Amino acid sequence: QVQLVESGGGLVQAGGSLRLSCVASGYIFGITVTGWYRQAPGKERELVASISSGDRTQYSDPVKGRFTISRATAENTVYLQMNSLKPEDTAVYFCNIRTSDFRAYWGQGTQVTVSS
To answer: What is the DSSP string of the chain?
Structure first.
C-alpha cells in the first residue's frame, strides 16, 4: 500500500521560511515526476513545483526564485524549501507522485499559513 505523508507546514510571518517534507512508503514502480501542489480556499489546486526522475525541476511563476524542490531518493523523501513567504502562499500543500503507467498518488496535505 503506497502512502505519501507530508509534514512541515505551519504558521509563519511574511518573509519567513518553511521546509515541507513528503515521505513515500510502499513500493512505487516507474516514478516519473514528483510534485508539490497547493490549494487555497475557494481556488483550484495548482502545481507549485515538480522534479522529474532525471532531476529536472520546474516552478510556477509565483514561486520562482523563492521555492526549491529537491529529493533524497534513498529516504524516499521530497522536500519543498519555501523562502520569502507571502500571505498569498497560504494554502494546503499536497505531494503528488506520477508514474510511467499513469498512476497518481496524493498525500493528505499540510497547511501553510503566512501572516502579514
So the answer is: --EEEEE--EEEETT--EEEEEEEES---SEEEEEEEEE-TTS--EEEEEEETT--EEE-GGGTTTEEEEEEGGGTEEEEEE-S--GGG-EEEEEEEEETTS-EEE---EEEEEE-
